[in-house]
Design goal:
Layout: H1 2-24, H2 31-53, H3 58-82, H4 87-107, H5 114-138, H6 144-169, E1 176-178, E2 182-186, H7 187-210, H8 223-252, H9 267-288
Antiparallel strand pairs: 1-2
Helix pairs in contact: 1-2, 1-6, 2-3, 2-5, 3-4, 3-5, 4-5, 5-9, 6-7, 6-8, 6-9, 7-8, 8-9
Length: about 290
């Protein structure tokens, strides 16, 4: 618990520093620091996932990790230097990566079978694409700062709510959420996670305003209602992301994806929920703009 607390504190301080840079550095160049974080998450996360699969050749591993990590900088390159949407850049990186893996299946067939090829393509989609989604959140034309705050407040508040409510009421209300995948998670814990996610969303919204930010929404409902709904949906996505990775780890026969973050496991153990939360946040903030 002590190691977990220390790691969490360092993580929170790092996120605060990145948010400050994004807010204060002119010309949106501060956003590039978040891109650097997401690129690192993609590279390390792809490494962890490929290692968990355990069936991928060295050459396949190198290609998959490289192109998973390239999705974010290619997104930023197209968004900043070329202008417009960054998605063509991310699509090029991931598409070329998938094509390269398929070429290896033919050219290096003795060490590349169907299973390893599909594992590599899955990694490109899961890690590469979803980190590119986080970069898209980082580069929203409107409310990108608020959207980033949502991502980095809703997710930990969801985790905290699920843990605290699950610990307090799990024995009295022991109905399991997904026992085949994660036997310790309960429905009441998931409800606590949803409550935590909503609290995190509302806290992010009012903190943004308190710091001088001005939300730019086009809505047919009060802003706080929209914030609550986004917080709820983000919490559900966060918990699904956690269960999704739990299913992968159970299939691979491992407890954690790695040991990079003491007390937490690997980088994917920390960002599994954030990867899926990013999809909801991107869709919601695009719709509300």
């Amino acid at each position: 618990m002590k190691l977990r607390s220390i790691t969490s504190t360092v993580y929170v301080l790092a996120v605060i520093a990145l948010c400050a840079a994004k807010w204060l550095i002119p010309g949106d160049y501060g956003s590039l620091l978040f891109d650097a974080l997401f690129c690192a998450v993609a590279a390390i996360g792809a490494f962890e996932l490929i290692r968990a699969f355990g069936c991928v050749s060295l050459l396949q591993r190198a290609v998959t990790i490289t192109f998973s990590a390239l999705a974010v900088p290619m997104f930023a390159l197209f968004a900043y230097l070329i202008g417009g949407s960054g998605w063509p850049g991310a699509a090029i990186a991931l598409g070329v990566g998938a094509l390269a893996v398929c070429v290896l299946f033919v050219a290096d067939h003795s060490r590349s079978d169907v299973k390893s090829t599909l594992c590599c393509i899955f990694t490109l989609a899961y890690v590469g694409l979803l980190t590119a989604v986080l970069s898209a959140v980082n580069h929203l034309e409107q409310n990108s700062m608020l959207a980033i705050m949502f991502a980095f407040m809703c997710v930990p508040f969801t985790d905290a709510g699920a843990f605290l409510i699950g610990m307090a009421l799990g024995k009295k209300l022991p109905l399991k959420l997904a026992p085949a995948v994660s036997p310790h998670k309960t429905v009441i814990g998931a409800a606590g996670g949803i409550l935590g996610g909503i609290i995190g969303a509302v806290a992010a919204y009012y903190l943004f305003i308190a710091l001088g930010g001005t939300p730019e929404f086009s809505l047919g409902m009060p802003e706080v209602v929209a914030v609550i709904l986004v917080g709820l949906a983000t919490s559900v996505a966060t918990q699904f992301g956690d269960l999704f990775e739990s299913a992968i780890k159970r299939a691979a026969g491992i407890k954690d994806m790695g040991r990079l973050l003491p007390g937490h496991g690997g980088i994917l153990d920390r960002f599994d929920g954030t990867l899926f939360a990013g999809v909801v946040i991107l869709l919601a903030f695009t719709f509300m703009a």
